[in-house]
């Protein structure tokens, strides 16, 4: 068996097109969705993600507000910026790029964002709403994973799903979303005993541990659909001195001989994350104007 490769890059392009159509529709009502992105410090990967977010926001016809603060910015200064953005009617979505420097309490900053503008879906109110089956802003990476799974498999009801990783930004919301789709969900992590046996139950496997090559082929049930959330940068001397490349959490070359379908890294989940951020911003904008959330941008 050679797995189908799920093309996240192409799918993200489709979502961005839907976003642009909704933005054009809103412009006819003189409404321009606006996204504010806040970057603290100079982490090189975050720099790239923020640049891509701003570019894609503008390409979709939305307003992009970029705020860059120094590495030694005080927590209170960041919270004050968030409060100003909460009060700004041109801003419908606020995203604080993670990770933040160590001296800043991430939860405190995230929970300072107005939940209605929390397009990352990380605020405790949105996490609670998702966990209790109420409408919520859904975190972008799990939302992108779910869209790809639905596109590939259709109705997910009754499927055995295994999520590897329990982070607040991917593992936990992913598990909640799959539960909402009526999957039987198992979450495993670094302390899970007999993890190979647990993962082997999965007809759907979502790997989000942040460790390169963590998932070997003999953990994967034949015919499973595998979503690799990992983005690990490794040295690539074959590309030249000092060069690097990205790999996922799954041993792609071996797993593709066992799985029915798999997302690649790069070109899988990553591009979907930014496309879903744009989708969430349009949703937040619609809701703030008393308009219904666009059906083609939400789950
Ligand atoms: N506030 C947030 N911070 C972070 C999030 C998030 O959703 N909200 N997620 C990650 C980083 N991230 C977005 O911020 C992100 C990561 C990767 C990609 C992506 O497109 N990856 C490409 C490869 C890009 C490259 O060459 O480096 C791919 O996988 O094909 C987009 C967004 C942590 N922080
Ligand atoms: Mg910190």
Would you spell out the secondary-structure blueprint of this structure?
Blueprint: E1 4-5, H1 8-27, E2 34-40, H2 44-59, E3 63-69, H3 75-87, E4 93-96, H4 106-110, H5 124-131, H6 140-153, E5 160-164, H7 171-180, E6 184-188, H8 195-199, E7 204-207, E8 225-228, E9 232-235, E10 244-247, H9 252-255, E11 261-262, H10 269-288
Parallel strand pairs: 1-11, 2-3, 2-4, 5-6, 5-7, 7-8, 8-11
Antiparallel strand pairs: 9-10
Helix pairs in contact: 1-10, 2-10, 6-7, 6-10
The structure holds the ligand Nc1nc2c(c(=O)[nH]1)N[C@@H](CN(C=O)c1ccc(C(=O)N[C@@H](CCC(=O)O)C(=O)O)cc1)CN2 and magnesium ion.
Structural summary, described in words:
Keywords: Amino-acid biosynthesis, Histidine biosynthesis, Hydrolase, Methionine biosynthesis, Multifunctional enzyme, NADP, One-carbon metabolism, Oxidoreductase, Purine biosynthesis. Its EC number is 1.5.1.5, 3.5.4.9. The protein is α/β, with parallel strands linked by helices and 299 residues long. It folds into 2 domains: 30-118 and 272-293, Leucine Dehydrogenase, chain A, domain 1 (Rossmann fold), CATH 3.40.50; 140-262, NAD(P)-binding Rossmann-like Domain (Rossmann fold, 3-Layer(aba) Sandwich), CATH 3.40.50.720. The protein is built from 10 helices and 11 strands. A 6-stranded parallel β-sheet has the order 1-11-8-7-5-6. Helix 7 links the parallel strand 5 (160-164) and strand 6 (184-188). Helix 1 (8-27) packs parallel to helix 10, helix 6 (140-153) crosses helix 7 (171-180) and helix 6 (140-153) packs across helix 10 (269-288). It is globular and about 50 Å long. The mean pLDDT is 98.
């Amino acid at each position: 068996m050679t797995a189908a490769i799920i093309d996240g890059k192409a799918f993200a392009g489709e979502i961005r097109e839907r976003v642009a159509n909704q933005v054009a529709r809103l412009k006819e009502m003189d409404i321009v969705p606006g996204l504010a992105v806040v970057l603290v410090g100079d982490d090189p990967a975050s720099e790239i993600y923020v640049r891509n977010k701003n570019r894609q926001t503008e390409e979709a016809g939305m307003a992009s507000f970029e705020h860059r603060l120094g590495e030694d910015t005080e927590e209170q200064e960041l919270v004050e910026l968030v409060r100003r953005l909460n009060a700004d009617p041109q801003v419908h979505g606020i995203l604080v790029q993670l990770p933040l420097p160590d001296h800043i309490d991430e939860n405190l900053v995230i929970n300072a964002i107005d939940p209605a503008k929390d397009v990352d879906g990380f605020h405790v109110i949105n996490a609670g709403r998702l966990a209790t089956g109420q409408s919520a802003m859904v975190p972008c990476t799990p939302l992108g994973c779910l869209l790809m799974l639905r596109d590939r498999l259709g109705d997910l009801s009754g499927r055995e799903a295994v999520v590897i990783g329990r982070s607040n930004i991917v593992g936990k919301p992913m598990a909640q979303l799959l539960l909402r789709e009526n999957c039987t969900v198992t979450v495993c992590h670094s302390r899970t005993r007999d993890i190979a046996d647990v993962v082997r139950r999965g007809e759907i496997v979502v790997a989000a541990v942040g460790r390169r090559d963590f998932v070997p082929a003999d953990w994967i049930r034949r015919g499973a659909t595998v979503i690799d959330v990992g983005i690990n940068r490794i040295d690539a001397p074959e590309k030249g001195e000092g060069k690097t490349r990205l790999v996922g959490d799954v041993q792609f070359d071996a797993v593709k001989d066992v799985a029915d379908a798999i997302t690649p890294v790069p070109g899988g989940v990553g591009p979907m994350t930014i496309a879903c951020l744009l989708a969430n911003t349009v949703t937040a904008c619609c809701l703030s104007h008393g308009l219904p959330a666009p059906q083609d941008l939400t789950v």
